[in-house]
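Appendix B, Record 12. Input sequence as logged:
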Amino acid sequence: MNNPHNKFFLSLGIVGFALAVSFALVSHATSKNDITYPVGELGGCKNETECFRFCDARDNLETVKACIGFAKKHNLLSPTEIEEAENFVITRGITQGPGGCRNQKECDTYCEDTAHLNECLDFAEKYGMRSSEEIAEGRKIAALLAQGAKLPGGCREKNQCMEYCNDPSHMRECVTFAEKAGFISKEEAAEAQKILPLIERGEKTPGNCARKDACEAYCADTIHIDECLAFAEKAEILSAEDLRDAKKFAPFIKSGETPGKCTRKAECETYCSDQAHFEECVGFAERVGLISKEDVELAKKTKGVGPGGCRSPQECETFCKTAENQETCIAFAKEHGLDDIASRITEEATKEAKEKATGDAEKELDACAQKSCSEMIVCLQGVGVKTGSASGSKEEYKLPSPVQTKLDACIEEIKASATGAQDAGKAHTPPAASGPAPLPTATNPAEEATRQYEEEYKKQYDAEYQKQYEEQVKSQVNCSLFDAAPTCDYAGAPGTQNYNLCKQCFPNK
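Logged structural output:
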């Protein structure tokens, strides 16, 4: 029920009140009929017009002081207004506002024009004329305007914006602007979006309230509770559960029988979070039907104190959302038979942990992608990613697209580097082994012993020959071509010449 456009009206008329006190007040100092003319303190002015002219000439600080003193002497302004005037004009020496404005009308006109918003904000901030929250709101509008955004309906000053946004047909546009400017939260915007269709159809808000605080004040009166509940139900502002509880609660609010005579949810929760009111609140909740008998027993068992000493739903939720407290909350829930709550906390904690782990892994992968090819592959393996062929068929983890692209390029680069080794390898196919020919199958023990000796000799000869051959090939192959490959699989499939050459250079790869 918050009327968001009212917030930025404060920014459009940012210096209104303060300037009204410090500049315009003296211009009315001679409006009382009991003042005797001529007025010596005001330059001997002989009538209201002359006195007005005298006090409006504020270039002279002494003149301004004289006019304020006159107003104070004759009680033409309230003590608060006099104090403000002395603070701004006498103490700070401010005699004119932004754009040289000299009275309230001039300053309001000047500062309500959005073209002067930054200047007026700077002035108001410098002299402390507005709260930090109001200044911040004004800065948000200034930033949006600087980006080319337009105020609703293209309005440029407060009255125009009020007139435009008070039209029900424009409220949706105004709510959207208020959310974009950061004047209302997403939750408030969502609440407003529920109400807008009703207003656009001509429905009236409770008491025709136009702002959240006004609506809350109206609905806090027990006389209006039924009207407000009916509107909340129609606008679907409350959840089904909250609406059900509110209807149960309403008769007791009317009769003043609620704990501490509270009328709002926040008030009741604050009152009942006090241990001194525990029995009263539990008894009331049971009588109204807000909690079951089982919950009553649990509440009595725990004395209304949850994990970490929390005493209200908000406190307990805040406590249990913190990662280091989740084990405490799970243990508390299990201890008191709240298995469903324990399961929910566990599920939420697991989900958060997975999301965090995914985020951390992606950061590590991005860091790997910044390295050279050989370093990148080692880095990825350290993260726990299986780096196989360019197709990615061996990946345990689906890599982000930029990382996968870099990995594929590195694999192709390694294969291309290995291609140069093929020609060197082709010239070194091992010749047939030259040793003694196999002997015929032995037919007696002496011949059998000789045959076994000859075969063993042949194996040793062939092994030595193969070793000499490999050393010869290795000396002629540029093994640096395979340096970047973390394994010889990157040079080629097992059994291929590239694979074999890589193995000859690096047997352990």
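Confidence is low (pLDDT under 50) at residues 1-31, 388-396, 432-446.
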